[in-house]
Amino acid sequence: MAYISEKPGIGIRLPSIAASSAARPARKHKTARGDGTFSYGLPLLILFFLLWEIAPRLGWLNPIFFPPLSDVCRSWIGLAESGVLAKHIGISLQRAAIGFGLATIVAVPLGFLMGRYSLFEKISDLLVQTLRNTSQFALLPVFILLLGIGEASKIAITFYSSVFFLLVNTISGVKAVDPLLLKAARSMGTSDLDLFRKVILPASIPSIVAGARLAVKSSIFAVIGAEMLAAKSGLGYLIQQSQLMMETGDMYAGILTMTLIGLIVNYLLVWFERWATSWKGQSDTSPH
Amino acid sequence: MDRIVVSGIRKTFQLKPGQYVTVDGEETDRVTVLDGVDLNIRKGEFITLVGPSGSGKSVLLDIIGGLTQASKGIVQLDGTTITRPDPKTGYVFQQYALFPWRTALSNIEYALEVRGVPKRERSDRARYFLALFGLSGFEDRYPNQLSGGMQQRVAIARALASNPEVLLMDEPFAALDAQTREILQSELLKIWEKINTTVIFVTHSIDEAIYLADRIVVMTARPGTVKEIIDIDLPRPRDGDIRSSTEFNAHRARVWEALRDEVNKAQKDWALSPAYAN
């Protein structure tokens, strides 16, 4: 008589809506960090910066369009000292944060309902898929028409850019909760509310946080894009405006700032993800 | 006095639309796994439930635990009909079913949390039960930092922490290695002798069934009914050596005798099993 020891593992069954590998790229970044990749990659990055410095100076590239890196740094310091840079960064981040925050408030409860109640998902899935596959930038004119050129349309586009990452990952997190844990919780007389709060929510946190990482990134990119198209402030506006004025030093300074923010935010989120899912950590062998 | 009365339990599973199985030469979308189970379990009794795969042992346990509704018949716990999980019942699963985001201590506290036990008392009682299973010092370990045997100890401690009057155990030691299994069997017996709760224990192992039980309930092949109830009159407290005694061997032969035909029948039925596995 064989024992059946089939364990319904976490995350095996992916729902249809989450067929895209939403959580996977995040994982790769995580393992790529801290295992020496940085020191391996550094020489090539330095070479890139060196080329950037040398090429315009030797006339390989037109310094009007491609100022040497040192000039860009000088522009950057100028922008930073005048306080202009901080102002634009602050505005962009604020827009991204409000959009992301609103997206979280909407997507997480909605994701819970869609993940838990199949009828709810059946009804809403097609609409969600339709909206999800509409570019946020294609909708910017609509947002501007509806909400005007002010803050609201910028927040709307960041909201739109992040809400689906959160929604899809919340749904897949809720669906992937080990049915055995739900059964165990029910056997102890867990109420429906406690089942959400104490079992389904913590069980789906890793998936939600992975979605949040993608969502934060996406909302920052979206706000920059929106600011380039229609704004009077923000990093995107700074980049776009510098290009129009042919102040290419400022333009590259703005782009580099963007990159730097992207990197910092990503590292913060990786750190947060590790902290929030620390219980998943390394298992060490223990005696019986 | 009878603590649990199972009368006329029948359970039929309806397959998903479009799914069919062949039962006794006929295509059907309904499978009967339990067909008229009657069983009286006395207070403080240790019952083991054996039967071939698919005989509905786990389903019966779920019905007694209030996790599954019977299609027909009732189960009474101290005279009250069970319709949902009873706070007086504890449940232990084969795959531990610990919450991976909670520490060992906090997993045990969970059982008390959902029953509304005050915070202070929760921690004290959880610590007491951890200590009872020799796990003091492991309070802050997460399940994936514990071995299988330790995880199952935590799971049993969690089930016992709320002082259940009935403990349902669904092949709790089946996933463990042989040595750990035997250690846990004797630990369970020692603790059970102290607290004297009523236990219903599903197992595939005849030796385990004999070693633990006051009475062994042998189930038939699908559709499951009670085939035979065998009294195990081995003296308590029992230690591991009892397994090599003549009496133990006699019981082993007797249980296998009761089980053999059913296992053979179940083999022919196996193609069905995915339809109602668990």
Key features?
heterodimer, A: 288 residues, mainly alpha, MetI-like fold, 75% helix, elongated, disordered C terminus, B: 278 residues, Rossmann fold, six-stranded mixed β-sheet, four-stranded antiparallel β-sheet, NitT/TauT family transport system ATP-binding protein (chain B), ABC_transporter_ATP-bind (chain B), ATP hydrolysis activity (chain B), P-loop_NTPase (chain B)
Quickly describe the structure.
Chain A is mostly helical and 288 residues long.
Overall 3D form of chain B: globular
Name given to the CATH architecture of the domain at 2-88 and 164-270 in chain B: 3-Layer(aba) Sandwich
CATH class of the domain at 2-88 and 164-270 in chain B: Alpha Beta
The biggest sheet of chain A amounts to: none
Per CATH, which architecture of chain A? Orthogonal Bundle
Query: Helix coverage percent of residues of chain A?
Result: over 70%
Proportion of residues in β-strands of chain A? under 5%
| CA(first)-CA(last) distance of chain A | 26 Å
Over the alpha carbons, how many angstroms does the gyration radius of chain A reach? 23 Å
Low-confidence stretches of chain B: 274-278
Largest sheet of chain B: 6 strands, mixed
Portion of residues in helices of chain B? 25-40%
User: What are the low-pLDDT stretches of chain A, counting only 5+ consecutive residues below 50?
Assistant: 1-33, 282-288
Mean pLDDT of chain B: 91
Secondary structural class of chain B: alpha/beta
Interface with most residues: A-B, 33 and 43 residues
